[in-house]
DNA sequence: CTTGACAACTTAACAACGTTAAGGAGACTC
DNA sequence: GAGTCTCCTTAACGTTGTTAAGTTGTCAAG
């Protein structure tokens, strides 16, 4: 009841609430109520709502890095593991990718894991610039993928009704490839992500390594 | 003064205004004022604000497809041209990528160009599913890239002061690769996009073609 | 002409939002 | 025991998306 409130607790509570109400429903008053506090109290800990969202993204990143453990030795596995972890953590929260993307982090906890990942790449034939480019390219793919994934609604293959593919097929009867593409894109996001990720990593090896 | 207002005019005006005020400043009252009309009038043409944003994204897509012309014959060039066009149109508007991503289109004008692009791929050794995966992978990369690009602010190489790289380098003195990565990522977005795109396309050729 | 209907707006108002100003309770210091 | 600092409350402001109800213009039917 009379718990001590600090930045970490606010951000954690906000992330929990995010899963229940989504980004639209994530108001300062709702977060405050969850903390048994009135809305203006949050302004003691954060200068405005954007600062709170930045902190939430930073907490997501910290948790992701905490899950990291030993890095794989092969650079392909290092990138693949990191991107799977990134996607998994973005998917843990409703609209997680939207919250994460385009915020900038409130501390430097990202630097150490990033340095280790980049060192794996440079130790394997990448120039520093090439490693950075590889990292940014894979991250862009992952974030873009998850944004679309979360915007599409629940994965139909996992039970939930995400999108009416039959109706879509009827509207697009004149465009058979577009129909097939829809069925490819709306089904089984896990497999789809892996296929795209494999392509991105393979391409990084071909065009970015050693340049 | 007494122009006829319809959905297309509203969406076009909103897109123009977007460049002046950004997504945060894009209120219904501001859009209405631009049209010499009061805010509730917009509800005659759109059921709510989200429907207007969907229409804006659709207009962006239509303009993109209008710029399309003859498709390149090689599948690599088809994807590269399409993704450069996508990025260029997302960049035409402030927060363009955020508006575009995660909205769903209000008509079927996307189907015909998509079908033609996919046909280029299937005519070049891709299965329908492989072509769809290739398309979605490249689009995810492009959208993710532009979201980060627009969130980072203006390209420092083009004059504007986007981000203080010197201060960043000082904070991260213990992490030399992360410093180098920052300089790679914050400079010259055009070249960075091309390098990542080349990697993605190369990887698509290796892992997705003929499967 | 008048009537009536429909389309395209206006005026007025609502609840909810982010945010600020001012103040109060409780603990810690000198 | 007075003063200061931290952390929160109460009250309020201006804006936002949105709804309800009424007004104007247009046009066809009788």
**Rounded radius of gyration of chain A (Å):** 20 Å
CATH superfamily of the domain at 71-207 in chain A: Tetracycline Repressor, domain 2
In percent terms, what proportion of residues of chain A is strand? Answer: under 5%
Spell the H/E element sequence of chain A.
Answer: HHHHHHHHHHH
What's the CATH topology name of the domain at 71-207 in chain A?
A: Tetracycline Repressor, domain 2
The main sheet of chain A comes to: none
The general outline of chain A is flat
Helix/strand/pairing class of chain A, anyone?
mainly alpha
Please state the oligomeric state of the protein chains shown. Answer: homodimer
Number of helices of chain A: 11
Distance between the termini of chain A: 58 Å
Mean pLDDT across residues of chain A: 92
Total strand segments of chain A: 0
* Share of helix of chain A, binned: 55-70%
Write the CATH architecture name of the domain at 71-207 in chain A: Orthogonal Bundle
**Main interface: chain pair and counts:** A-B, 59 and 59 residues
Could you describe the 3D structure shown?
The first copy, chain A, is 68% helix and 0% strand. Chain A has 211 residues and is mainly alpha-helical. Chain A has a domain at 71-207: Tetracycline Repressor, domain 2. Chain A is flat and about 55 Å long. Chain A starts with 6 loop residues before the first helix and ends with a helix. In chain A, 39% of the residues are buried. Chains A and B meet through helix 7, helix 8, helix 10 and helix 11 of A and helix 7, helix 8, helix 10 and helix 11 of B. Chain A binds a DNA duplex (30 and 30 nucleotides) through residues 4-5, 27-29, 37-41, 43-45, 48-49.
